[in-house]
Amino acid sequence: MTLNADAMHSWSVVATSAEVATGEIVQAFLHGQELALWRNAAGEIQIWANRCPHRGTRFTLGRIVDDQLSCGYHGWRFGSGGLCTYIPAHPKLQPPKNVCAKTYPAVERYGMIWASLGAPVAEPPHLPALADVGQHAVFCRSFVIYQSAEKVMYQLQQLAADRYESPESNVLVGQDGNGGTITVLLQPMAEGKSIAHLWASSSDATEDVNSVRQRNNAYFKQHRQQLEACV
Question: What's the pTM value of the predicted model, to 2 decimals?
Answer without folding.
Answer: 0.91
